[in-house]
């Protein structure tokens, strides 16, 4: 029998974060206002801190043809790879504003975004730290986004 475990930190709120991480989370919370989410009313903001100190934002962009919509995380990964090609991502903070309900519990990337985050960590040979939270309240910290997708399918499986 084999077992896969991963650990994550749970903070009561953002005040326990380092100032760099607290600022990044604040930017992610602000970036929720740039979402285009008229269908779900669920506005997600994701902000990356790159190895060169630059920050990049992403937000979810929906479409009347629902599957066309894209999550904040993948908007962010595409933007980072284009604007700062070849620069590794150190940390990503993700938040959401639920216009139909509460925004208190941490949001966690969807399955497709986990696959995209995993590929980015492989490309850059460096783990991506995740800071997950709503507009207020509890914050989760994961040291390696790849941990969210155990037994994953990667390019190595096609060799
Ligand atoms: N969404 C994200 O952008 N990121 C997540 O981590 C979860 C879900 C978006 C997709 C869709 O526009 C809306 O949130 C509701 O699912």
In total, the number of strands is: 6
The number of helical runs is 3
Q: What is the approximate shape?
A: globular
Mean pLDDT: 97
Radius of gyration: 15 Å
Provide a descriptive summary of the structure in words.
- This protein has 159 residues and is of the alpha+beta class.
- It is 25% helix and 23% strand.
- The chain has a 6-stranded mixed beta sheet, with helices on both faces.
- The longest helix has 14 residues.
- It is globular.
- Tetrahydrodeoxyuridine binds next to strand 2 and helix 2.
Write out key terms for the chains shown.
159 residues, alpha+beta, 3 helices, 25% helix, binds tetrahydrodeoxyuridine
Question: How would you summarize the topology of this molecule?
Answer:
Layout: E1 9-11, H1 19-31, E2 42-50, E3 55-59, H2 72-83, E4 89-98, H3 111-124, E5 129-133, E6 139-142
Parallel strand pairs: 4-5
Antiparallel strand pairs: 1-6, 2-3, 2-4, 5-6
The structure holds tetrahydrodeoxyuridine.
Short description:
The chain is α+β, with helices and mostly antiparallel strands and 159 residues long. Helices cover 25% and strands 23% of the residues.
């Amino acid at each position: 029998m084999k077992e896969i475990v991963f650990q994550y930190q749970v903070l009561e709120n953002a005040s326990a974060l380092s100032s760099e991480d607290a600022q990044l989370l604040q930017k992610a919370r602000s970036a929720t206002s740039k979402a285009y989410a008229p269908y779900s009313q669920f506005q997600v903001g994701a902000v990356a801190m790159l190895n060169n100190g630059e920050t990049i934002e992403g937000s979810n962009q929906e479409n009347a043809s629902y599957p066309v919509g894209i999550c904040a995380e993948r908007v962010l990964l595409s933007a980072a790879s284009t604007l700062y090609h070849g620069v590794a991502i150190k940390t990503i903070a993700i938040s959401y504003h639920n216009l139909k309900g509460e925004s208190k519990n941490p949001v966690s990337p969807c399955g497709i975004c986990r696959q995209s985050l995993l590929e980015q960590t492989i490309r850059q040979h460096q783990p991506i730290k995740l800071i997950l939270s709503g507009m207020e309240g509890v914050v989760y910290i994961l040291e390696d986004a790849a941990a969210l997708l155990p037994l994953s399918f990667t390019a190595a499986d096609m060799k």
